[in-house]
UniProtKB/TrEMBL annotation, chains A, B:
Pathway: Cofactor biosynthesis; tetrahydrofolate biosynthesis; 4-aminobenzoate from chorismate: step 2/2. It comes from Glaciecola nitratireducens (strain JCM 12485 / KCTC 12276 / FR1064). GO terms for biological process: 4-aminobenzoate biosynthetic process; folic acid biosynthetic process. Its cofactor is pyridoxal 5'-phosphate. The lineage of its organism: Bacteria, Pseudomonadati, Pseudomonadota, Gammaproteobacteria, Alteromonadales. Belongs to the class-IV pyridoxal-phosphate-dependent aminotransferase family. InterPro entries: Aminodeoxychorismate_lyase_IV (IPR017824), Aminotrans_IV (IPR001544), Aminotransferase-like (IPR036038), BCAT-like_C (IPR043132), BCAT-like_N (IPR043131), Class-IV_PLP-Dep_Aminotrnsfr (IPR050571). This is Aminodeoxychorismate lyase. Its EC number is 4.1.3.38. One of its GO terms (molecular function) is pyridoxal phosphate binding. Homodimer. GO terms for cellular component: cytosol. Keywords: Folate biosynthesis, Lyase, Pyridoxal phosphate. It catalyses: 4-amino-4-deoxychorismate = 4-aminobenzoate + pyruvate + H(+).
Length: 294, 294
């Protein structure tokens, strides 16, 4: 088995980097507190799963998950220490960083065909983060529809033009903070950069991500939390109109964690949500994550 | 209007480059002979069209097409001169280069949302090319289906994981050189890195690329050539089984130009093609392109 030390860790990607040329890679965006990554086990597991789905990890190329974890841990600690040392240049100090690890298939000559034995290239980066207290989001509906591609679905790969176009569209929607992305059939998939959960008559629902969408680390964590705590949650396809009959809803990703949705507008109809139940769940999950050892 | 000189031309993409992080950009791959780009007008027009579709060019950001042309021309000439000077290290000399221009939306902070006024980043690259005489290709059918996404369709953007996965799949297909890519309905779209034309009972056909696929520069050139020369060609959706009843077919892109298909295998059925008509058309078009002033 190849080791992480056999792979290039770089901050200066080459012209032949396949992430640059074809979006040929995957990534995870993690929240770090005082240099410790939240949900590190899940992030590394997800990175390895996604790299396998893209066949970046294959019969010739692999690396140890523990080495990957160490790489991220070391980088997060160094980034936090560097941020602390540079506090004099900042207006507000923060103990939080967003740490991202991008895994490119590596470098190759021209052409879509990859070399199956080229070593992956790891590109870590970090950025200060300032959490917003009592944050809520309001939702509109994107005109753009997500395509269905089952071989890429669920994977947090680097082909993110749909999300980029959705964010551009968001600028044209007045009075909403984020957009619901649906597929061509009008089924809810996700938001522009987070997953979504909603509750109708005491039953939670979250969209299936088997044909489109990202199977987010926080989505997975919440589903496990709900199962452990006997909270019923259906993972199923539902038409976007279902959101109008929900009583509470939240968006989630690994950085913002759970953010209650204040209201949703779809066409001429809109619904105001009770943010209480989402806030309560957000607090419980946030407390549980904070107790985890990274 | 922004000028090309206001945009960064770089060979060292930064960590914040949006092509690297999200595949947020487009590109064109061009054939250069003795430092002169073939079909340069079409390549620059395509790059500008694609950049507009992705809203890299928008109300705040634009650049002159002539400046873009000059940038490519200068780069192609310099690359050819550099290649000539380094001939001593090569076993075979070549007058051909493949020149690629990648246009990234530019750099940005973390997140899918782009800044609409950030200057695009141009990344040119070049590589020696050795044309293969009397080249033909045999085709199989990819299991992988192309997704339908009308806002990205036709565009040669950097989200190319479907093509990468198709090239990986190709390695498992014995005895064929390339794969036919279809959509979920089984309609022919393109090959892994080229468009396809086929002739049934004297009528040429090429797939529509309105919902999936790339509207290649050579595809456009051939369609115009056929129109100028009263050769009937239908641009339409056709089920992949239609290829079994064709008499001749060719693949095409800006680098390989027209390559006759020798035979096609779909499931248990296969058809051998008459390569004569495709070879004849390939020669005529190659001669016409060679006469164009770049």
């Amino acid at each position: 088995m190849m080791n992480v030390s056999d792979c290039a860790v770089t901050m200066v990607p080459s012209l032949k980097n396949r992430a640059l040329n074809y979006g040929d890679g995957c990534f995870s965006t993690m929240l770090s507190r005082k240099g410790h990554i939240q949900l590190l086990d899940r992030h590394t597991k997800r990175l390895v799963n996604d790299a396998k789905k893209l066949k970046i990890i294959n019969s010739k190329v692999s690396f140890s998950i523990d080495d990957l974890k160490n790489l991220i841990k070391t980088f997060a600690l160094e980034s936090y220490n560097a941020a602390k040392q540079s506090t004099e240049t900042k207006s507000v100090e923060t103990e939080w960083q967003i740490v991202k690890l991008l895994i490119a298939r590596g470098d190759s000559e021209r052409g879509y065909a990859p070399s199956m034995d080229s070593a992956p290239v790891f590109i870590p980066s970090a950025k200060d983060y300032y959490p917003v207290a009592d944050h809520t989001v309001s939702l509109g509906l994107a005109h753009m529809k997500l395509a269905e591609q089952s071989i890429l679905s669920g994977v947090k790969h680097l082909n993110r033009l749909e999300q980029v176009m959705a964010k551009i569209e968001l600028a044209d929607h007045e009075g909403v903070d984020d957009l619901i992305l649906t597929n061509a059939k009008g089924l809810v998939i996700e938001l522009t950069s987070s997953n979504v959960f909603y509750c109708i008559d005491g039953i939670w629902h979250t969209p299936c991500v088997e044909k489109s969408g990202v199977n987010g680390v926080m989505r997975q964590y919440i589903l496990d939390y709900m199962q452990r705590n006997q909270i019923i949650c259906n993972v199923s396809d539902m038409h976007v109109s279902a959101l109008l009959s929900a009583q509470t809803a939240f968006s989630c990703n690994a950085v913002t964690q759970l953010v209650p949705v204040s209201h949703v507008s779809i066409g001429n109809e809109s619904t105001c949500y009770d943010i209480g139940p989402s806030q309560c769940l957000a607090q419980k999950i946030s407390d549980e994550i904070a107790k985890e050892k990274s």
